[in-house]
Amino acid sequence: MFRCLHRGSNLLTGVFNASLLRTSANTVSILETKTGRKSAINDNTRSISTTPLPEFDKDGLKSHDDLYRLSIEKPDYFWGTLARSRLQWYEDFSLTKDCDMKSGHIRWFLDGKINASVNCVDRHAESSPDKIAMIWEKDEPGTQEYVTYREFQKLLCKMSNVLEGHGVKQGDRVAIYMPKSPTAVAAMLACARIGAIHSVVFAGFSAEALAGRIMDAQVETVITADQGVRGGKIIDLKKVVDDAVQTCPCVKRVFVYQRTGNEVPMSNIDINLDKELESASDSHTPAVLDSEDLLFMLYTSGSTGKPKGIAHSQAGYLLYANMTMKHVFDYKEGETFGCVADIGWITGHSYVVYGPLSNGATTLLFESTPVYPDPGRYWEMVERLKLNHIYLAPTALRMLLKNGDEWVLKYDRSSLRKLGCVGEPLNNEAWDWYYNVVGEGRCDICDTWWQTETGGIAITPRPSSPDAEIRPAMPMRPFFGIEPVLLDPVTKQELTGGNVKGALCVRHPWPGMARTIYGDHDRFLKTYYADYPGFYFSGDGAYRTQDGYYQITGRMDDVLNVSGHRLGTAEIEDVIDDHEDVAESAVVGFPHEIKGEGIYAFVVLKDRVSKSEEELMSDLKHACKSRVSSFAQPDFILLTPGLPKTRSGKIMRRILRKIAANKPDELGDVSTLFDPSIVEILVDKHQQSL
Ligand code: WT7
To answer: Of 675, 680, 677, 670, which Cα lies nearest the Cα of 647?
Structure first.
């Protein structure tokens, strides 16, 4: 029987009491930037975002600095208190944490019993059944659908009954390959409700990429849609699943949701999801799960060809998504939160689903693209749906700003309060445009740094004290509980003070951090805990300013960031090397105006080839698209007689990166190469190809 420990307590209701939020006068000092636009550099405080944590009022802790200090010095008290007040438990935990950063052993809220779907849905369906839980912003503007918490609870219960009815049980892995829709969110939360582990695969990945993820987790159940609709185009999702499943003997059933209702071939393992939902009961008893039971896994790229199934557990992840969503964006009761990311990425998990819903917010499910039907889509949507927050990717901003201010200015954006972005560095030009044109100089810009592995936002300007400045183009300040550390990659010594650059690590554990790589805990330890013992290593480099603010300098490993999508260079090389005419290849990133980073492939052919150069180039691009995803297609392919290698045979990517970036005079020392003459050939060939 469901028992609620904290419902109705002052603590829980206090969280949603807007009168506790503080405001103060606006004081902004405006500086002219080189673009001639106004930019608040030193004192960007027009909208005050400090949201004190009422839980600690009794300790006399109200200022952000005091609260941050508490989170670092007394993490058990800090997170334990918040876990009890913000989440609803079946059974209280006995120990706040059991973590060892040296051995990568991470456990939070031990022996606690909880269900994430109850926290996201049932408690709000009970207290405010008619509140809008989600707005499904479908591809065609103006066709949005609203779903209340009560309606969504029914869908969730039906979905849970359907899954259980077909034998899906606690601990099973379920692959979700769906476009954004209430049904897709219900699929995720139904897994959470019955204790199955969802593995959402972005519905733009190829059949081969999907199959790899299905096989890695030995998935028996797949949930998909007949088709997707995006930017006015129909995408045959079921067909991709059919192709993938052919190579996956572990798959026993494929649920097919009708997004378009067009006829698609159904085989004997396919199940019409809509029909099943229709006849299923709309009440369901949730499973009582342990804090540390896995909630989901999500694949992300690392420096080898095989994507990693990053695994998150129930309570810690949920609390961290809940806290960051509420306090980074200063979410207030009644507001509409618009994170446009897909549910196939961690941003969609934390800031479309778990963060907003666990706060009882109204969340946006955006099915379309930033340029459909025209580059005004986001802002037209902001006006029509009265969005109070928008959270998007820098690559979209860079694309939109090229289309001119008129696409923004013709819509009313006065509802907007906070502007967030994530995925890659937000360059000065895009920051300036976001702040001045989109936000009319009155909304905080939250450049948020985090990763699939961190579960939620880790570094971002807000929350902070009301008068704290926001500087362009850097995420600046750590969230509660996060103490960033910079370490020297060679000496492994901690770099102290300001004006230093190093490997970005975190000193203390936090509830939202990943627990393992599904099925490969050794790889988990090796990737995140081996290089800098005692710290979590992010894989990114960062710079700390004189006054202690953080700026991300980029990946330190062989991982690319193309339009905010993480891609391992080895994943692309594997595909290219499979071509019968290719001897070997090396892929590097180069600065790209819109995508942030573009893909440059250096390819060495075999002595005898079967095809012309044009045919080969087109083959290789097509292979990357069809075997990984369209964003994995190289922007440049350079055919070369060889690659720069050391005497031990290691490819010197540093040199390839400089060539790709068109900086041949910055090649540095090439004398350690086995054959230094190859460098000149590469530089010449690159120049000719421009
Ligand atoms: C990598 C994580 C976290 C959701 C989206 C991506 C890069 C992320 C920023 C930022 C500069 C950023 C890092 C990080 N990144 N946010 N604000 N500034 N770089 O999640 O796919 O796990 O990728 O994205 O390189 O390691 P992800």
So the answer is: 675
